[in-house]
Amino acid sequence: MAEGSALDQRTGEERQLLLAFLDEHRRLLRETVLELSDEEARRRLVPSLTTPMGLLKHAAFVETAWFPCRFGGRTRAEAGIPETVDESFQLEPGDTLAGLASNQQRAISQADDVISGLSLDDRCTHPVMGELSLRWVLTHCIRELAQHAGHAQILVEQIVAQRD
User: Which Pfam families match (predicted)?
Assistant: First the structure.
């Protein structure tokens, strides 16, 4: 936990705490990946599509898919995101860390705009899981971003170790 962060408020209201944890994991993922060069961040160290840069790209997808799309009513095509999760990790030749970090920030801003108009009990519909409350989705996104921040930390550690 970063000193002076919103997470220092350990007795806040439920919404405040959920949003603080969400923001913390958004930041951790971005800052971890931005330790690398563009070339390093494209490296695949595992058989899946997971790369540091891909994790950052996927994080923006998650923000957009859940909030402007599921809760805001936009289609994925309207929001400019891929139809499948796997596609959200795929890198384009022109992708850069700076560009993807900016895209993530923009996706966070749009997600936060949607979230600000909702209560924790408001619901969206997922085609497989059915009705889900904002409370559930925020908790899910916190878990997912925490996992991806951990993935990024391990990948970055491996890449940095190979610099020498």
Answer: MST
CB count, 10 Å around CB of 148? 22
Looking at the chain, the number of H-run helices and the number of E-run strands are: 6, 2
pLDDT digits (tens, 9 = 90+) for 17-26: 999 999 999 9
CB atoms within 10 A of CB 163: 8
Kindly list the domain boundaries of the chain, sorted by start residue. 17-92+117-161
Q: Among residues 55, 65, 37, which one has the least CA distance to residue 149?
A: 55
Q: Which helix (H) or strand (E) holds 132?
A: strand 130-133
The band of 156, judged by pLDDT with boundaries at 50, 70 and 90, is very high
Q: 17-92+117-161 belongs to which CATH class?
A: mainly alpha
User: What pTM was estimated for this model as a whole?
Assistant: 0.92
